């Protein structure tokens, strides 16, 4: 009888040993397993079962782990040998690909290793136990003669590979050493130059923007002077217009550097700064980056730290320069503009590029800025009293290429180009005719004309259709429909022969009185961009109707991108507060935490609380193994997940479909082939 | 136990035949991988057919690359631990161009044998002069199976391209063609007792009995009935050849019939076929209804088809059929119809099995290009192994003192 606890223990141990991910079997655990399994033959059988189960897992590292345990047990137990050899064909299938249809699972490196290790082990087993176990000899021969496995090669290869590994490692370290020597000498050459530049730049900065500390230095001298005659202080202050010494004057210094106006006095300094900046940017920073790459590969930590210090120094300097706002004075000649360092060429604006963007519609509808409304109205040039009508040429947007108006306009333009003279002649003719007509009628007609025109202006215009045909028909009878068999096929007749049958239209008279007008809406070009402030200082150029994919709802913003309307501001603030609340505190900086962990050995990272019993990921479950199912978490895959997911594709497709359907109904609904699909 | 039975036999309480049968049965049921004998691995590809000659000495095997081999199964090495040497091999360039489907010794003559292959040739070989085949017969289609009449020894029934032809080697040509019966034939076997009775199995699972003296009618075997039918009448008219089938065939297996074996007295037939799974059936001959007296299904899903051959041990008490089951061989008890034992040892699909009646051994061949010897004479072998162990001092005390299952003490970690 098998004890459940022992079985559980064996299962746990086998699992633990096989999923360790190392090449060496933990001796302590193995001893425990052996004592448990060695209690009786049944336990040993059970152990083999569990091991084979582990061997069947689709992960070569697990299989390798299980094999290592099997190898040890095989050497130590006679009965285990017999048991394993009974299932040896399964074992071979799972470890050395004896069945060419069942290949070893990933990772490939572990699979290769497993195969090689198993072959070596089988060779060893064969030489030790072939006398006692015929089946082992048979299997060995099968592998050797049938699968053409070269055991000598497998053995040799292991030794050879080890040697090759060693040689490769030595070669690599030599190479790295050479490189490190190279950069060391290079650094020695350049460090002085860099430090010179950095000091010069620092000096330049202090010349341009005197630091508060510099100012106090001067004052400190003054104070020392004043200390000698303390009674004079009040007098002095009074001379300066300060009556009360307790008065505190707080000067608000903006954290960002101020603007520096380029004048003739500081032109030379700024020029030097620029030169140095360019030198650092184009010459030294790339070489420092190269050094970092080399230094990170070498074992020399001090070198790496040195290079990193250098880099941070240079970068700080460069940042300081970049933050400097240089404002050119008016008198600057244009020639200096031309030698700007930009490599980009000036190109004409792209067609349709709008330098100035209008404020979004949210602002417009609330009528905060009237001028915008006007501008909008002007651009569309839509009379306010005209409600939407089909065939309303004014409403049809010329910009929308799918409309009749647009097509007509284009045709007209073409015609005008081809025969310009003809048009002029006809126009003169119509003019003459008009003048003749004017001459005939009296004044009363004129008034009537005007009234008619007025009425016509406000009268709805509709194309001719069935409802107009029956407009004045008082006594209407519901239309009847007769079924007509269009294809009188000789053999192929419908199940119910209803040809000639007449019945009334189920809609009755209404079908003659109604008219269906599809409303497609009007084409509205996007005239605003998101304009949320970006980290680069620019504004988000994304143009969209309602929502920016990165910054959410598009709202009205001023020139620097701050929201204008109070409700927007409050909403944004609420969002920010929410994000802050969820964010870990400031000291949860990963680098800082890493330092702490290195020094004290404590991991102070605050992890988000676990929600319920979350399923462990593979890497959490087996930290020693490589995760073979891990999807590569690339920006592309992340975007794909959002953009190409089923729901969004469906949503977009249905919207597009409905729009185009309405459009077709509106434009071609009276055509026969479109009339057929009346769903 | 054995000694007690022997005493009974000596005292006349037990018939020697019964004793012999009991011992044979014991050995056959004890079949396991032989720990002493191996067959010399000379094969370069999978094996499709095995045959033992009438003296149970020479093992003939046909491989899927068209070559054949003869192994001597007798042991002259003066030690139980031996290798069965290959004594004859197909000379290069005279072998078949495609895989061999059947090899067969002539009945009561171990100097000649026949091989047939999917390339359409049936060759007769002289074992003493194997340089060239003695005679060759060309059949148009691939030959699936042939069988030499065990009674007269000169008529060979050949199943090629779905038809059955009879060759007479004394005449040197085909003498007769069995009528077409709307089924593609696959397997053919003579009754060892009635020299004119020929059993034919088809791809569609039809089992047909012909009397070659008069082929106007045939018997078709179903599970619960035997139907006597007239052969179809072939009329050649203006619209080509039309055959009038008087009655539809009934099925013995739902899948194809892959192998057949008669019992040695010719009263029973064992068929191996497919019906979703592997299926072995036992038939009574010469009855009119309920001919099927035993069915055994086993194994995993199986489409049927392929070149398999089974063998029957019928001089043991429950008749045992050895039938292949993917990578193993199943020993089927055909009296109670259950799978008694699975013989595991091959690494790839097993195709054929041959049972040595005289010495109670089994040989199986498969796609892994090896013949495995199965023997049930465990006591002898075990005694031998133990003797050897004591002789060479290998684990001498192992039999005396029970050793721990796992030897943790000898930590000879290298």
From TrEMBL, chain A:
It is found in: Chromosome. The lineage of its organism: Eukaryota, Metazoa, Ecdysozoa, Arthropoda, Hexapoda. Pfam families: DUF2043 (PF09740), UVSSA_N (PF20867). This is UV-stimulated scaffold protein A C-terminal domain-containing protein. Residues 327-362, 428-452, 605-638 are annotated as: Disordered. Keywords: Chromosome, Coiled coil, DNA damage, DNA repair, Metal-binding, Zinc, Zinc-finger. It comes from Orchesella dallaii. Residues 434-452, 627-638 have a biased composition (Basic and acidic residues). Belongs to the UVSSA family. Residues 459-565 form the UV-stimulated scaffold protein A C-terminal domain. Residues 336-346 have a biased composition (Acidic residues).
From TrEMBL, chain B:
InterPro entries: Rad28/ERCC8/Ckn1/ATCSA-1, WD40/YVTN_repeat-like_dom_sf, WD40_repeat_dom_sf, WD40_rpt. WD repeats lie at residues 93-129. Keywords: WD repeat. The keyword Zinc does not apply. The keyword Nucleotide-binding does not apply. This is DNA excision repair protein ERCC-8. It comes from Orchesella dallaii.
